[in-house]
Every structure is written in structure tokens, then in C-alpha cells.
Amino acid sequence: MHSFCPVCELPFRREEGFWLGAMYCSYGLAVLILLPLFFFFQWLFPSWPGLLTATVAVLPYIPLTPLIFRYSRVLWLFFEDYVEPPGLCSPPRGR
Q1: Per residue in 29-56, pLDDT tens?
Q2: Are 21 and 73 in contact (CB under 8 A)?
Q3: CA 65 to chain centre
Q4: What is the greatest pairwise CA distance in the chain?
Q5: Domain-wise residue ranges, the chain
């Protein structure tokens, strides 16, 4: 991961634990994807036990994990930009 955005020089390394909030975004994205998949497979195969249905629902999700990881960080950056006014940030460092 780059230290700064190559376009706007936004620092990606803020402070220790900054990306912890992206974990919550990742969890929300996972729920939005896995819950409909689970109920779709539960409807498609009603005689299957719940654990098997959950396992089958996770299989299409596994290849999406790199995208979920990346876009959860993007969502976290947008949220942080929305919550914190731009004037309170320290100016970007020059290279």
C-alpha cells in the first residue's frame, strides 16, 4: 500500500489503529453479501441443514475477499472524510 495518494497526496498511514474502522465496514459488506446468499441457498435446497447451507453460501464469497478488503478501506476513508472537516487535518507532507 502506498504511503500517500499519488493524485492528492492524502496520507494513508495516519496513526496506529486507524484502519480498525475498516474492519467494521468489511463486516457490513460481508453481511450484505452472505445473508442473501444464505437465504437463496436455503430456499433452493430446503432439506439441507443450516451449516451446509452456510458453507455453500461462503464458497462464492471467498474469491471476493480481496475486493471486500480494498473497498472496506475506501468506505472507511470516505466516512472519515465526511466526519472530519478538512480544515482540521494536518497539511500533507511534501515528498
Answers
A1: 999 999 999 999 999 999 999 999 999 9
A2: no
A3: 9
A4: 62
A5: 20-86
